[in-house]
Amino acid sequence: MRTLTTCTVAAVLAMTAGAAGAQTKTITGETKIVTATVEAIEASSREVTVKKPDGNYEVFYVPQGVKRFDTLKIGDKVTAKYYENMVLTVQRPGEQAVDKTSGGTVRSQSSAAATSSHQRTITATITAIDPKLPSISFSGPNGWKYSTRVEDKAALAKVKVGDKVDITWTEAMIVSLDEGK
To answer: Does some domain include residue 42?
Structure first.
């Protein structure tokens, strides 16, 4: 699953100020290209954990239409050109928690490359706020936890522990296996 960025957290905090109704904020991302090494493969969920050149790990969803998924091995090199955006919606009191995922269209470009999209929506709960650092922590389904610094200290005063936010990540990418692996 994707992690929240600092600007995302700032947007969450800014949105939570009003309690009148559900507020929504879209945070557009940037296009990134990464060549990484396959570190783990979860065949049942079609998720591949890769290690990027900077040493960080990323998890990619590989849709059913991508040929050669079954040939991936730990140590293979993959290149992904991807774009993400996030839509954040502050939940109204009493709304049901969300935890869903959906795959989008897949178009094979060759036996080793495909274009795909994937969307994931979860409800995250603010679990801790530290106005001195300043930082905020979230938790969500399946043991998901995330903490980050917050640039706008004043924004922390607008939220409280226990507030819930629906976060939808949309990812579109072109994935290819590198020749020669």
So the answer is: yes
